[in-house]
Design a protein that fits this description.
The protein is mostly helical. It is 66% helix and 4% strand. Among the domains are: 11-155 and 213-282 and 312-455, Sodium/glucose cotransporter (Up-down Bundle); 156-211, no CATH class; 516-548, no CATH class. The longest helix has 40 residues, at 216-255.
Length: 707
């Protein structure tokens, strides 16, 4: 009974969780005996075949946090919110080439690109610092999402809440009722100020829809110990084998809520009848951040440029035995994630219909739906699936982070201490990364805002890596200049300036967009029929929808004192430096822009600005004494990987002896661009990837037509 009271779980649920943890720990223990070298620990010996490579990529990229975040986005923004995860479907054909490129580098870490291309020791260390920081942010977000999901799975009954907690819940329910009237332009004048007060309290997380049994400290301790024990023993080798089990559990927990929720609502018809029209637009409604333009900008910034410089590219692709294996594993994992993403989005809509839109924190939608629908045993299976998904991703992230730390931060200071010492240091680093992730999780203010900020930060190294792979003229000086400027603008300033009250309460920085009204054609709901806007349910009518004021230079803007309607406004979340640049440099007044256009501008600026520095600076500078080094680098990039290590090394030596040996494969001969002509494998892979992209987007469109 104590277990039920404290954790909200039946003993059978806990038994299933313990069985899963025991199996994963056993796998880590078995594979630990194979770890002899850094390449074994970080790259699984570069011997992974197609099936295991698929599970490695799928399980590394598909985590429970992605599922929970997608459900959160669609719950909060409608089905248009799915694009923060689904946008990657358009980059699938690009990934077909990307996987081959990084396998062909034959490196262990992404930082080694700069070391080998420029003979630099400092720039790889800078990349390692930035890459570790970015990935720690992702780990922190993952921890926070997992905590929110566990909290929602262990909700405390209202009668067991304290009077203060009950009051917070009542205030939240009042806010939901008033906000619904406000957005429908039916809020009585005497309730306007009350709505503003409650809205500010909601933005600052002072009111909520439930209280949980879960103790955050206990959760973090148990979760971290579980992940650390599994990861530090087996490295990437353990992840490869465990991901077969984890991948299966990921698919199970992604699907299991859908039929249960549909049955509870009386089938598909009962579900669709409870969804407002504005939740079903494919590219957003015009009242939020999602439109075709912001989705396109997000795809280019995050999934093309940003992903090219991602810290995990070597680990996810370099462990394959050859290029085709890396490509198939990468594409298979990526497209599996896009299919599952649509399912996760559907879960968000099911949660919205099930709870009538009354959840205070959208991040908890998945957990609360699970708590309501799952019976004894199934809740344990859900928890095991969530842990499996997150552990596989955390394992992959921690392994490539430890590689960056040991090879580019630890080794330069201590020298060559031997393989055993470096593997031990990697294991200690993993523990440290997990603990720092907890710290970040505690101070994370909102998942969706952090995700929207990531593209601007990932591009800091994504842009130079993209040029480095194919342009001989790129110089070390240009990379330094670009990295320093973009780091200051997109990473440092938003974090450094935000804590200062004079900045957060600046009248200019807290400027909001002007309220706007859009007219949308939609099917009439029962509420529309009741108030006389339509003659029958489902009739096509035109309705006015208010686009509330939105912060321009901050993610959110709210009053400092929610109870005082005259108190000054303050900014919450990240400072959008990209929009400040547009406002000041181009003299653009952004107050009449819709949220989707503001997001589009952010991504356009973040995507173009690094290249506006790299290309001009490279053309006016030169790296002396690197001609031979540059030739060797591009010889390697033109030499296909042979699974036999000895034969592969022999082919590379032939190219090093004659750097022009493979110049006939260049797409643009006698230029500084090192793109290769397409092979038959390139062509059929691109066509299949494109067909998969069209098929998945088409399936998403058909789903919306059915809703």
């Amino acid at each position: 009974m104590t277990v039920l009271t404290i954790f909200g779980f039946h003993p059978l649920d806990i038994l299933m969780i313990l069985i899963f943890l025991a199996v994963i720990t056993y796998i880590g223990k078995r594979t630990s005996a194979k770890i002899k070298t850094q390449e074994d620990f970080f790259m699984a010996g570069r011997s992974v075949g197609k099936i295991l490579q698929y599970f490695l990529n799928m399980s590394t990229t598909v985590d429970a946090n992605s599922a929970v975040r997608t459900a959160s986005f669609t719950y909060e923004k409608g089905m248009g919110g799915i694009w923060l995860m689904l946008a990657g479907v358009f980059s699938g054909p690009y990934y077909w080439f990307l996987a081959g490129w990084f396998r062909r580098t034959r490196m262990i870490t992404m930082a080694e690109l700069f070391e080998e291309r420029f003979k630099s020791k400092v720039l790889p260390s800078i990349y390692a610092c930035v890459g570790i920081w970015l990935s720690l942010l992702i780990i922190g977000i993952g921890y926070r999402t997992s905590l929110r999901t566990f909290e929602a799975l262990t909700i405390k009954p209202l009668e067991k809440c304290t009077p203060e907690q009950q009051e917070k819940i009542a205030l939240y329910n009042e806010f939901v009722s008033l906000d619904k009237l406000y957005r429908a332009k039916k809020l009585p004048a005497e309730q306007v100020e009350r709505h503003k007060v409650l809205n500010s309290m909601y933005k600052q997380d002072e009111i909520y829809s439930y209280v949980s049994y879960t103790n955050p400290t206990a959760f973090y301790v148990i979760y971290t110990v579980s992940v650390a024990a599994y990861t530090i023993m087996g490295g990437l080798e353990a992840a490869v084998w465990a991901n077969v089990i984890q991948g299966t559990l990921i698919i199970v927990f992604s699907i299991m809520l859908i039929p249960l929720a549909l049955v509870g609502m009386g089938g598909w018809g009962g579900f669709t009848s409870q969804l407002p029209e504005n939740m079903l637009y494919m590219f957003g409604t015009g009242v939020d951040e999602f439109s075709w333009s912001s989705i396109a900008g997000f795809t280019i910034a995050s999934f093309i440029i940003g992903m090219t410089g991602h810290q995990g590219n070597m680990g996810n692709n370099g462990s394959a035995k050859d290029e085709l294996t890396a490509r198939i594993g990468n594409i298979g994992g990526a497209y599996t994630k896009r299919i599952l993403t649509i399912m996760w989005g559907l879960v968000g809509l099911l949660a919205f219909a099930h709870f009538s839109g009354k959840i205070s924190d959208p991040d908890t939608a998945w957990g609360m739906l699970s708590n309501d629908l799952l019976c004894v045993g199934m809740k344990g299976l859900m928890i095991a699936g969530i842990m499996a998904a997150n552990m596989s991703t955390l394992c992959g992230v921690c392994v490539y982070l430890s590689a960056l730390f040991v090879r580019h931060l630890y080794k330069p200071f201590v020298g060559d201490r031997g393989e055993k010492n470096f593997i031990t240091a990697s294991r200690f680093a993993i523990v440290g990364f997990l603990l720092i992730g907890i710290y970040i999780s505690v101070f994370a203010t909102g998942i969706i805002h952090l995700v929207k900020a990531m593209p601007s930060i990932n591009i800091i190294f994504g842009a130079p890596v993209m040029l480095l792979l194919f342009w001989k003229k790129l110089t070390l000086k240009s990379v330094y200049v670009q990295v320093i400027i973009c780091s200051i603008l997109f990473a440092v300033l938003p974090e450094v300036l935000s804590p200062f009250d004079t900045i957060r309460e600046s009248r200019w920085l807290t400027t909001q967009t002007n309220p706007q009204t859009v007219v949308k054609s939609m099917r009439a709901s029962q509420e529309d029929v009741d108030i006389g806007l339509a003659a029958a349910l489902g009739q096509e009518i035109k309705k006015e929808i208010i686009i509330p004021p939105k912060g321009i230079f901050y993610d959110k803007v709210a009053r400092r004192d929610p109870d005082d309607p005259n108190s000054p406004m303050k900014g919450l979340g990240r400072i959008n430096v990209e929009l400040i640049m547009v406002n000041k440099l181009l003299r653009m007044d952004l107050r009449d822009y819709k949220p989707s256009m503001l997001l589009t501008i952010r991504y356009i600026v973040a995507s173009l600005f690094p290249f506006c520095i790299l290309i001009p600076v490279s053309l006016i500078t030169r790296d002396k004494g690197l001609d031979e080094n540059i030739n060797r680098f591009y010889v390697k990039m033109k030499t296909p990987v042979i699974p036999d290590r000895q034969k592969d090394a022999e082919e590379l030596e032939k190219g090093y002896a004659d750097p022009t040996r493979l110049d006939h494969t260049k797409l643009f001969p006698n230029t500084n661009w090192e793109f290769c002509k397409w092979t038959a494998q390139d062509t059929w892979g691109f066509l299949i990837s494109s067909a998969l992209t069209v098929g998945i987007v088409g399936a998403f469109w058909l789903l919306l037509k059915m809703l």
